[in-house]
Structure formats: C-alpha cells, structure tokens
Amino acid sequence: MDENATARLKKTASNWTLNVALFVAMAIICLPGLWIVLNSLRPTVEIMAKPPIWIPQSLSFDAYVAMFSGIGEGGIPVISYFRNSVIIAVTSTIISLAIGMSGGYAFARYRFKGKGGWFLGLMLTRAVPGIALSLPLFFLYARVGLIDTHAGMILAYTALNVPFTIWLIDGFFRQVPRDLAEAAQIDGCTRWQAFWQVEFPLARPGIASAGIFAFLTSWNEFALASQLTRSTDSKTLPVGLLDYTAEFTIDWRGMCALAVVMIIPALILTYAVQKHLVSGLTTGAIKG
Amino acid sequence: MKAWRLPPPVLLLLPAVIVLAAIVLLPLLLSLYSSFTPFRLTRPETIYDWVGFRNYERIFTDADFWIAFGRTVLLLTVALNLEMILGLGLAMLVERFTRGQRILRTILMFPMMFSPILVGFQFKFMFNDNVGLVNNALQSLGLTDQAIPWLIDGTLAFIAICVAEVWSSTSVFAIFILAGLMAMPRDPLEAARVDGCTPWQTFRYVTWPFLMPFAFIAMTIRSLDVARAYDIIKIMTDGGPAGRTEVLWTLIARTAYSDARMGMANAMAYVAILLSIAFTAYFFSQLGKARAQVAADW
Amino acid sequence: MATLTLSQLDKNYGAFHAVKGIDLDVADGEFVALVGPSGCGKSTTLRMIAGLEDITGGDIRIGDRVVNDLAPRARNISMVFQSYALYPHMTVGENMGFTLKIAGRDKAEIDAAVAEAARALEITQLLDRRPAQLSGGQRQRVAMGRAIVRDPDVFLFDEPLSNLDAKLRGQMRTEIKQLHARLKATVVYVTHDQVEAMTLADRIVIMKDGNIEQVGTPDEVFNQPASQFVAGFIGSPPMNMADAVTTATGLRFANGLELPMPPGFNVAEGRKVVFGLRPDDLYPEGHGIHSEGGHAVTTMDLTVDLSEPLGNETLLFVDLADKRFTGRMLNPRRVTPGEVMTFHLDLSNAHLFDADSGLSLRGA
C-alpha cells in the first residue's frame, strides 16, 4: 500500500472512532434522563419486574394524575410544593437581579480602592457549603421567626445568588462600550437615564441569563431548604422529593414523575439562555 | 452647598454587601462563636458556656472526622480531575462537528439542569441492586448473574457516587472548554500542522496553552459549588453503609441535626468552610494569572 | 527544494465548485504568484497544497511524491499566513525554532538555525520578545523566519503583506524578492494585489471562478492578456475598454466613432468585440510614455473632464466612445477641466477581445 492510501485509511478510521465516541458520550448523558421519563410512565409492577422488562408493556400518566389530584397516592401535596418553589425562586431571582445589577455595574464601570479584594470577598461567600451555612442560619432564623417561611427562603437564596449574578452581569456590562453611555450623556441624558436608555438594553440578554441561572439555583437547591423548611407552608420541590421515600421503600414511579415535573421548567429555561450564559461567564473571566 | 453623598460604587455595592453580611457573614460569626461552646439544640442555655478549643481538640483527635475529611479531599480530587479530562475530551469531540453543533451543545448542558438531589435519586435508582438499570443491563447482557450491591458495598458505593458526581458536573467543564475552543484563532493551529505537529503535539503546544484559562474558569465555578455533592451523597447513601461514604458535609449534618450537637458541628463546618475557601481562592489566583497571560498574548 | 505539480485539481464544498480541475507545473526554484479576485479559488488551492483542505479530485505532487492525502506535517512545506499565525505564548525564538523542536532536533542545532534566520531577517534583537510586543512589520519578518528555518521543499505564502500599510508593504516586497534570490526556493504566493504579483513572480497564474485564466510571465500577462478579465485585472489604472463592431477597415463604436484596426489583429467584418487600450497608450501629444516613431498612432482632439495630478504624472479622464477613458500624461503640466487637448492613441498596443467569450482575438 502506498503512503497516500495509508494516510487516507488512517484519517477515515480516526474519523469513525471519534464519531462513535461522541455518540456513546451523548448516549451516556441522555440515558439517565430518559430512564426517569420512561419509568414515570410505567406501572410499579413493571419497574420491579424480575427479570427486567426492557420494552414497556403499558404506559400511562397515572403517576402524574395521582400527583396533581391533591393529596393523592402517597399523600404528597405536590401542588403546595410547586407553588412554594415558584414563589421562592421567582422572588429571590428578581431581588438578586436588582442587587446583582447594581453591584455588577459598580465593578464594570467604576474604579475604587480594593476592587479585586471586594470581588474575591463576594465570590468567596458563595464558596461556603450550604450545609455549613444552614446550621447558624437555622439558629438565627429560629430566633427571628423566619423558619418555615417564604421570606426566610427568599432571603437565603438571594444571598446565595448575588455573588454569581454580580460576576455574570459585570461581564456583560464590560461588553457594552463605555463610549455609548458617555455619548448618551453628551446628548443630554443624566447618568441614570444613560444607564436605562443605553446600557441596560444592550446588556439585557446577559441580565436575562443571569436571572435564569439564579432561578435554577433556587429551584434546585436542597441543602438549605431541607433544614430551613418544615411544612407545606414553605417546602420546595427538591425537599418534597423526599416524601416519596419511606423508611425502607421508595415509590420509584411517583418520584420519577415528580422529577420530570421539576426538570421541565429547568430544561426550557436553560435552553433559552445557553448561548448567553457561557459567553457571559467567559468574557467576565477572560477580560477581568 | 452640596449635600454629602456616598460615592457611587459604594452606594451600588451596598445592597449586595448588606444581604451577604446578614445571611452569610453574621451566621458565620455566630457559628464561629458557637464552635467554642458545647451548644446543643435541645439545651439552649449551653450556648453561653465557653469551652475554648475543646470542640476543635476533639475533632482533631477524632478518627471519624479525619477519615471523612480524607474521603472528601479524595472525592474532590478524583471527581474534579475526571471531570476536567472528560470535559476536555467531550468539548473536542463536539467541536469537530460543524453541523448540529447547537443540538449537541444543548444535550451537553442537559445534566447541568438537574438538581443535585435529582441526580442523587436518579443514580440511586440506577444503581439499585434489585431494580436498577445498571444491574438489569449487566444481567440481561449475561455479564453477571448476581445482583451487584452497588450502594451497599463501601468501595462500590464510593465509585457510584463518583459516577453520579462526574455525570452531573462534567458538562460545566465541557461547556467552558468548548467556548474556549470556539474562541480560539484558527491560524496558529494550521501553522502548527504545517510546522510538522502531530495532532497530539498540536494540542500539547498550541491548543492547551490557549484553553488553560477556560479550564480554570470552569474549575473556579465548580469549586464555588463543590458542596453540591452533599445533596447527591445524602440521597444515594447518606454517608452509609456504616459510614463508609461519610464525607465532611454529611458528617456535619448528622452531628448537627441527628445528634443535635451544634457546637461540635459548627467546629467541623468551619474546617469545611476553610477547605472550600482555600480551593476557591487557589483557583481564583490561578485564573488571575492565566487571564493575564491570555490578555497579554492572544 | 522541489518541483510542484497540480493536475486536474478539484475542490467542491457541497454544491459549490471552488476549484475546477486546474493544472499547474511549478519548476524547482520558481516563484509563482496566484492572483485573482476574492472567491476565485486561489487560497483554496494554496490550502490544498498545504494539506489544510482535503482535495476532491486530481493530484498534487511535490517532487516525485504524490501527497494527495498526506497530513500537512508529512509534506515538508512552510507557510506564511495572512495573520502571520505566530504562537502567542512563545517568544520569537521559540516560534522560529518550533518546527525543529517538533522534529526532535537538538537544542544547539535549533539555536544555530534560528540565529542564522534571525540574522538574515535582521530580527536578532527581537528573539526574546513575545509576538504581542511586536509591530506588524516585525511579526511579518518573524513569520518568514519561521518558514525559512524549516528549509522546506516548497514555500507557501497566503497574502502575507495584506495586513501591512502601504509603505511597509513596498519594503517587505523588496525583501521577499531578495530572500527568494538568495534561497532559490520554490514559492507559491497567493495575493489579490497585482502589483505584488508583477514585481515578485517569475510566473503569474490568474484565476477566476475556480479556473485558471492565464499563466504567464509578468510581461506576457501584461502585454498579451489572454482574456478581457486578465486585461482588466492586471495593470493600474486598469485598461480602458469599450464595445465595438468590426468593419472592413477597422472598428466602429456605438456613438459612430471609427478607429483603424489595431496591428496584429485580423478580425472578420461584423464581429462584436471589446476594444482595450491601456492608459499608457492614451496620452496628450508630447507627453507619451513610448517613443513616438514606428507606432500605429491615431490622433484625436478630446476634452479633459477631470485630471488627477500625481506629481511625476497626471491622470486625465476623457470621454471616448461614450466611455470614460483614462489617459496618462508624463512630464505633466497644469491641465484645467474642460480643456481640449490633442491625444495620441497608440493602437500598436491596443487589444481586442471577443464580446461573448471575452477571449483575446490576437492571432485569431
């Protein structure tokens, strides 16, 4: 065989190997999610069957119906959990966006003493593990009566989200040329007007993705919620998931159905911002 | 006369500082204080007993604590390194495809949407010795006829936890490194090929030096969030069997809430916090260096 | 050094046919320039020679070796990129020595080779700097240094001067020419700038829409353009052109103007043609570029619409056959717009092209 044929063969072979590798990797990423969706639709007998049934025999939405018909099968108040999750996640997202915008703008546009130190300090507050924070926070909340309230959870999640929102929004404001706001000011705007008329609209996609990131964090958080919530007054979906576990048994089907309910909003939102999310984080980090 | 006003950056940062001081800093000070007391939730008055470093002395001589500490560091080292390598590989595989990139990228982000607690349940289900996907598949394929006790054997459980953790967080690395790959100028890569580099040499001498800061961003972001692993472990094994997968965070939760020994738990928590902060601060400083390099050169 | 042969070289991007089966022989030590407008396939051709693009059909031969499917590293070529493509994280010295380092040469040998190339390009004092600290012209030299160090069979240049300002471009052009004279290297040089091609190349390949329009020495492509496209592309300011029909004695233009048949052309009556005349061959009496004897000169009074004084010469714009023609005035004097001057049309250097195919009718 001459060297060209060998080279061609090698190229084709490595192409195929890499394609197969990508396919396998993608399958591994998708499989657990699909497994959950599938099992939420199957009757428990089929899930438990030995030997395993690979091809589903009967599919139904029973688990979902049971879940949403109030105190249904297993007695899980999913609707309350869902409502709590939405209220807490949305409110804390809005507040952390407001705080993050003002903080991010400060880092992107002003020079001040110890800027790097302040930034690192804010970020490090995020590094405190939720479980470590939950102990004193539990004690503190118990004192001021914030245990098992929406307000308590909203505050906690706001604090959790602020560092990251600042990082993201700082990155996006950096991308907006300083000249634009200056031009607007020369055209007669106050600094405040210049911000809302020029800089804010341009940074809006970034702010939106920061918002969705904050929402997802609140939506998915467990360590704090599991300690700071007690009842249907404030329990969120991740905590509610535990209701499907009894001492030694787990209602797999019900849990899978609740998991699907949790994941769908997250899925939609992440898809909506995937592009801005990464570009925001990387510009923030590279051009810092 | 002009009224005295706060300078704008101070004013703008104030809300953030207030919230973080109230929800993070104040509790941390409180927990620092209570770590010097024998505080028990059941006996509130014990918070006023000052015992100095007794809690710390106890945990530093407690073998269980050190084992959990070691296991935490091991888990982080194994998981972060695996995630980095796999994420890099994944990003380079996806980058080759010019068509269908958007779809691939979305799939890549799929695990990031999963709440860690969901990841825990999902893998608890899949690794279930009786009805789990993994054993079912192995048995159906005839690779084994027994039920492998994934979550019951200590070592296997640790492996299962690593798998769950890697599954859920490799995406973070893949996404950032992919962003790096797409931002990379093409010409130096082509120049390297013409200059005689094999694909490996091209990667080693040209691609990797460029990607490094992106990997550090991912590392930094991940290190802010490593304690998410608590949720996964809590669900999958809750530190069991018999403490064989106990990590710092599960140990803290158990000490605080099951044993109600808050003072002791807070002392442990402080060690965990310092560990986290050390990791994060380290990656931040590395990021700073890498960033300076890229900004100056590329 | 080695020869380079392209035969029936083809490149498709999906439905788009970028290079359409071209043939080209480059002799050992020859400097060949590929020119053409953007999208003509010249860069694609170069990248196929380098191995950066797969070929769809045909053969590429370097020396006696067919390299169609070989990786770039197996072809022993050097390439200078438009963006220079220096490795930003390496010093100038490391950049230049990189190819030898990869080849596994020992350090002393690499240092010697780099030092020699650096001396030749006068960049010895820059060896410890990073590319980001260099000016455009310096980067350009480093990129060339990197190419020289390898001692390749073929040098490939992809629009290497297009990112430099005009003055530097002229200077680097001279240096590339001297370098080629010294190294006696086989060079394929892609550019869209016909001045670069004319000054540097032994032979010029003019491409259009994936085809080769003409291959020839600078003198050939300038004086005997094979087609209307080549005639319009080579030369600055570009050749003046106007549609005409052949008559028994010469040419008749749309506005009724008649000119005698240019010498060297023998075209049947009634054929639609395009008449071409370079600005050098349209000049006011006494200000011509050619000696005025022995040429088929036609004289005509024309009104100057506009003049562009350039110092050593002045470009004059006149209306001829309802087209704006450019004339070149040497030893210029002041010309006011609207002035009527007596112009000489040197038809011995005029061209005729077929109106449909665009091909030259010389000798037809």
Please describe what this structure looks like.
The complex is a heterotrimer of chains A (288), B (298) and C (364). Chain A has 288 residues and is mainly alpha-helical. Chain A has two domains: 3-59; 65-286, MetI-like (MetI-like fold), CATH 1.10.3720. Chain A is built from twelve helices and no strands. In chain A, helix 7 (150-175) packs parallel to helix 12 (252-286). The relative contact order of chain A is 0.13. Chain B has one domain (63-297): Orthogonal Bundle (MetI-like fold). The termini of chain B are far apart. Chain B contains twelve helices and no strands. Chain B has helices at 8-34, 54-60, 63-96, 101-109, 116-126, 133-140, 154-183, 186-194, 199-224, 229-236, 248-258, 262-297. With 298 residues, chain B is mostly helical. With 364 residues, chain C is of the alpha+beta class. Chain C has two domains: 4-233, 3-Layer(aba) Sandwich (Rossmann fold); 240-354, Beta Barrel (OB fold (Dihydrolipoamide Acetyltransferase, E2P)). Chain C has helices spanning 42-50, 92-102, 107-121, 136-149, 166-183, 194-200, 218-223, 228-233; strands at residues 4-13, 16-26, 31-35, 57-62, 65-66, 77-80, 154-158, 187-191, 203-208, 211-216, 240-246, 250-253, 258-260, 272-277, 282-284, 297-309, 313-320, 323-330, 340-346, 351-354. In chain C, the strands form four sheets. Chain C has a six-stranded mixed β-sheet, with helices on both faces. In chain C, strand 9 (203-208) and strand 10 form a beta hairpin. The radius of gyration of chain C is 24 Å and the shape is globular. Chain C starts with a strand and ends in a 10-residue tail after the last strand. At the A-B interface, helix 1, helix 4, helix 5, helix 6 and helix 7 of A face helix 1, helix 3, helix 4, helix 5 and helix 6 of B. Chain C: This is Sugar ABC transporter ATPase. Chain C: One of its GO terms (molecular function) is ATP hydrolysis activity. Chain C: Pfam families: ABC_tran, OB_MalK. Chain C: It comes from Marinibacterium profundimaris. Chain C: Belongs to the ABC transporter superfamily.
